[in-house]
Amino acid sequence: MTRDTQDGFVVTALWEAKPGEEAAIADILARFVPQMRSEPGTLSVTVHRARATPARYFLYEVFRDEAAYAEHQQTPHFKQLIVEQALPRLATRERTQYEVL
């Protein structure tokens, strides 16, 4: 579900799975994204996987505002799927926050 993204708080994340964890990360994200899309403060979320390097993922998330992003990080599905299951399987994780102009 995509809503108007002219306003909002944007977060991008670059992930690289540890060797052998690529399929597990893809599965975790497939279960996580529908739950994230149902959050009232989530305007849009898109997950990309590099074709040449399947261990690399690019996440593009748009939230209503910074408070909605903070709320997102407190949801049970974020804590269980991302913090507990995905993060230990990552070799690297880089996040950047943006404002929509």
Notes on the protein architecture:
The chain is α+β, with helices and mostly antiparallel strands and 101 residues long. It has a single domain, classed as Alpha-Beta Plaits (2-Layer Sandwich), CATH 3.30.70.100. Helix content is 34%, strand content 35%. It has a four-stranded antiparallel beta sheet with strand order 2-3-1-4. Strand 2 and strand 3 form a beta hairpin. Helix 1 packs antiparallel against helix 3. It is globular. The protein starts with 8 loop residues before the first strand and ends with a strand.
Short note summarizing the structure:
The protein is α+β, with helices and mostly antiparallel strands. It has 3 helices and 4 strands.
